[in-house]
Structure formats: structure tokens, C-alpha cells
């Protein structure tokens, strides 16, 4: 067994055993794990440049010229342990590798302790559904759980376009075609245009990262498909603003109208620390209703969107919730501390006021 295989697999197993989310390996340093948001040094040997090169070759394949790599994304399967998503990078002429652990078992929506409305959202048969949040907020895991729910409940064709493929889905009631950018297809846009000719019912796009991807995603939703995608934004207002801003100014009103007609939901996530020292997700959920449509299209003040989301909670047929409403739930259920809730609140003053009222 090579150095790369032996030590990388040992690190991955140790990370799993310690419930870590990420492994950091850097030249001339000992590795460390990220556990519940904290960087935890590992008592092991310092990794040399040669050690890093062995690990990079193992993950990327022997045909990769490591000296030519400045940054590189990919996925790797450690046999009988788990898969990882990796990023290789250079810093000060040294190598670094960050590995995100991907558990083999796809968690259910219930196991993730996500609101049950996500199961209903997953099963809609037309529209654009966006899962948003910062890096490390759990977007990929939430999406995997929702796609898995579709796989169990619907008889349909699901096409995913990912960079890289993370969770591997086993076909159940649905037929699933998972395509990895750089391996199965040249890029997102080529794969997306092709996907529309592959008789899909559901499309999963790894990320809406440019105007062409957004345009194709909207077209797919307009033509009767369910489209899931991620955006690196923190809430519904910023998500909608980001998408609209990618269009030329003269096309932005048309983009607003199209988005108002086709956006079914945004699910925005923030990762928090629970009282049990575990990760817990706080969610803003926006489900489009006539008020939301008016805000997006410009018929109503866009700034009213957060108020409409708050008002949607508990209304028949709508289960929208703001971050602060969910934070209050988590605090009342003694899942997170008051300080954790306040630090994550969109409006600390409003949150404190609501605490005093209740």
C-alpha cells in the first residue's frame, strides 16, 4: 500500500470516527480536522511535499502532472470507508489539500431534522427550487436528502450535473443519471442544454454560477421541469437580487417576471452549534405565493419580501418561515443557546423583543 493510500485512508477513517466534516492537509504541517466548526489539530506526523504529492496523485489519478496543479476540484472514493470531495491548492509554493467527507448513506429529511415541508417541496412537479447558503452550510446534504425523497416517492427521470458528484444515489422508484463535470461532460452549460433532450422530469444543477446557467435553468422550469440548484447567497432577498443582477439591465424586468412565474421556493441555510455540541441547521424557507410574486416582479416593494415570508408561517398552503422564526423554535426547544440564536439572528433587536414578548 502506497503512502498516499495508507495515510489518506487512515485520516478519513479517523475523521469519520471523530464526526469531523473536513480534513486539512498542508505541506510541512500536521493535518487537522474541522469538528462542529472548530479546527482541531491531529497528533500525527508532519506531512512532507513528497507525502502531499503521493496523496494528490492517489486522488487525481497517475496521469495528472502534479507540478502543473495550482488548484483542482474533484471527488475520490476511499474503498469501504467513504467518499470525499477534495480541493488541491498551492500556497507560498507549497501544496494543500482540503477534503470534505461525504457519508455513503444519504440521510433522510427526517434524520437531518429538517422541517417536514421540505418533503412536500421536493415532490412539486414544476418550478425552480434553490438551496442557498455559505460554504459549509449543508446545502449539498439537504439537496441529496430531497433528491433521495423524490427517488423513493416518484417514478421519474432525474438528471444531476455536479462538479464533482458527491452523494451517489441508488435507483429506487426513479431512474437517476448523475453526470460529473470534467468526466462525463465538458461543462455545466453543455450538459444542461443536452439534459433538456434527455427526457428529464427533475434536473439538479450543482450551482447557478453564470447568466447562461440561470437562463437554461429558467427555461427548464418554464417548460414543465422541476429544477434544483444551489446559490452562494444567505437569504431569499439576496438570492433573487443576485440572479436578477446577472442579466443585462435592459433584460432585468423580463428576468424578474420569469423568476416570479417560475421560482417555487428558496431554502436558505445557516449552520449552528447545538447545546449538545453538534451541527444544527437554521432555515429560512420562502414558498412563492401571490405576495412573493409581486415583490419579485416589482409590482410591490421588494423590501417587503421578508415580512411576507414571516406572514406565510402557519397560513393554509404556505409554510414559509424566516431565519429568526426558526431560530426562536430551536431556542425554545432547547436545541441551541440564547447566545447562538442571537449571534445568528437577522435582527438581534427584533429577536430580543420577541423573547421579551413571549
Task: Describe what you observe in this structure.
There is one protein chain. By secondary structure, the protein is of the alpha/beta class. It has 2 domains: 100 residues, Beta-Lactamase (2-Layer Sandwich); 205 residues, Rossmann fold. The chain has 13 helices and 13 strands. A 7-stranded mixed beta sheet has the order 9-8-10-11-7-12-13, with helices on both faces. Strands 3-2-1-6-5-4 form a 6-stranded antiparallel beta sheet. A hairpin with a 5-residue loop joins strand 12 and strand 13. Helix 1 packs across helix 2, helix 8 runs antiparallel to helix 9 and helix 11 packs antiparallel against helix 12. The protein is globular. It starts with a helix and ends with a helix. The relative contact order is 0.09. The mean pLDDT is 92.
Amino acid at each position: 500500500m502506497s503512502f498516499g493510500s495508507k495515510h489518506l485512508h487512515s485520516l478519513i477513517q479517523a475523521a469519520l470516527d471523530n464526526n469531523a466534516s473536513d480534513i486539512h492537509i498542508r505541506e510541512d504541517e500536521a493535518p487537522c480536522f474541522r469538528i462542529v466548526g472548530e479546527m482541531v489539530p491531529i497528533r500525527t506526523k508532519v506531512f512532507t511535499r513528497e507525502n502531499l504529492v503521493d496523496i494528490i496523485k492517489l486522488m487525481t489519478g497517475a496521469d495528472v502532472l502534479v507540478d502543473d496543479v495550482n488548484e483542482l476540484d474533484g471527488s475520490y472514493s476511499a474503498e469501504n470507508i467513504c467518499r470525499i470531495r477534495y480541493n488541491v491548492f498551492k500556497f507560498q509554493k507549497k501544496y494543500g489539500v482540503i477534503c470534505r467527507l461525504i457519508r455513503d448513506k444519504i440521510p433522510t429529511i427526517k434524520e437531518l431534522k429538517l422541517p417536514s415541508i421540505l418533503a412536500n417541496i421536493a415532490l412539486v412537479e414544476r418550478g425552480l427550487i434553490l438551496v442557498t447558503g455559505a460554504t459549509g452550510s449543508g446545502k449539498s446534504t439537504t439537496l441529496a436528502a430531497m433528491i433521495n425523497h423524490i427517488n423513493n416517492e416518484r417514478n421519474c427521470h432525474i438528471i444531476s450535473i455536479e462538479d464533482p458528484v458527491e452523494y451517489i444515489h441508488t435507483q429506487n422508484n426513479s431512474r437517476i443519471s448523475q453526470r460529473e463535470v470534467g468526466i462525463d461532460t465538458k461543462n455545466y452549460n453543455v450538459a444542461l442544454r443536452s439534459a433538456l433532450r434527455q427526457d428529464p422530469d427533475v434536473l439538479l444543477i450543482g450551482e447557478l454560477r453564470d447568466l447562461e446557467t440561470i437562463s437554461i435553468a429558467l427555461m427548464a422550469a418554464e417548460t414543465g421541469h422541476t429544477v434544483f440548484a444551489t446559490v452562494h447567497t444567505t437569504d431569499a432577498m439576496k438570492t433573487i437580487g443576485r440572479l436578477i443582477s446577472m442579466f443585462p439591465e435592459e433584460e432585468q424586468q423580463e428576468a424578474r417576471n420569469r423568476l416570479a412565474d417560475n421560482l417555487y421556493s428558496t431554502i436558505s441555510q445557516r449552520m449552528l452549534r447545538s447545546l449538545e455540541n453538534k451541527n444544527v441547521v437554521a432555515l429560512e424557507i420562502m414558498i412563492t405565493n401571490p405576495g412573493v410574486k409581486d415583490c419579485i416582479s416589482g409590482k410591490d416593494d421588494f423590501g417587503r419580501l421578508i415580512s411576507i415570508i414571516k406572514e406565510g408561517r402557519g397560513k393554509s398552503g404556505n409554510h414559509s418561515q424566516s431565519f429568526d422564526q426558526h431560530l426562536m423554535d430551536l431556542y425554545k426547544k432547547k436545541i441551541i443557546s440564547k447566545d447562538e440564536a442571537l449571534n445568528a439572528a437577522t435582527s438581534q433587536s427584533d429577536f430580543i423583543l420577541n423573547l421579551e414578548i413571549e
